Amino acid sequence: AALTNLQDRAPSKRSPMCNQPSINKATITEEAYQKLASETLEELDWCLDQLETLQTRHSVSEMASNKFKRMLNRELTHLSEMSRSGNQVSEYISNTFLDKQHEVEIPSPTQKEKEKKKLPMSQISGVKKLMHSSSLTNSSIPKFGVKTDQEDILAKELEDVNKWGLQVFKIAELSGNRPLTVIMYTIFQERDLLKTFKILPDMLITYLMTLEDHYHADVAYHN
């Protein structure tokens, strides 16, 4: 009976202590949140008003641009320290896009790099020797710049040279893996660019073939 009486009385004694504070806490939290949000909005409005009336030598957009350039400068400096090619890329971007006050700190070339610069192109690593002669005559130049026993099929594919969806891989197959040479030579011929720029056909073909020789054979989309 005593236990029963305690159980019956317990909820009535605890309910005023447990329920009421939770309601007050929720109410206070919501009120504080609304007050903080209101004060924050007022502060932001004040900041915007100050920015609009602030008299500065540089515009806000210019200051943002300068900030971006400083960030880019830091990244390029890091890139230039990684490798010789990274150094060259950083130097190009710096000279082309950055102002003098944001110049990249590019390391000075080493003695070994200076000696490499003195080497002729044929001795530079990665540059292949000229494998194609430019002694072709206009009469001996194939219709599309390269020799192929599937010229008619190739001509059909090149009808779409000025359209989206050109089958480059098919052209590569038909031209003996010379899609760049075939497409560029065809475009130059159709638009009379050889005469416009006074380019000899054999020299253009030699250049394009040499360029293709430096492509990676395992990168099919390189062209």
Helix content: 55-70%
Rounded average pLDDT: 73
**How many individual β-strands?**
0
| Proportion of residues in β-strands | under 5%
Shape: elongated
What Rg do the Cα atoms give?
A: 37 Å
Output the helix-strand order: HHHHHHHHH
Q: Report the end-to-end length measured between terminal Cα atoms.
A: 95 Å
Number of helices: 9
Structural class: mainly alpha
Low-confidence stretches: 1-7, 9-23
Oligomer: single chain
Biggest sheet, open or closed, and with what strands and sense?
none
Brief digest:
Belongs to the cyclic nucleotide phosphodiesterase family. PDE4 subfamily. With 223 residues, this protein is mainly α.
Report on the structure:
The chain has 223 residues and is mainly α. It has nine helices and no strands. Helix content is 61%, strand content 0%.
Keywords:
single chain; mainly alpha; 223 residues
How are the SSEs ordered, and which strands pair?
Blueprint: H1 2-53, H2 60-80, H3 84-97, H4 111-117, H5 151-157, H6 168-174, H7 179-190, H8 193-196, H9 201-213
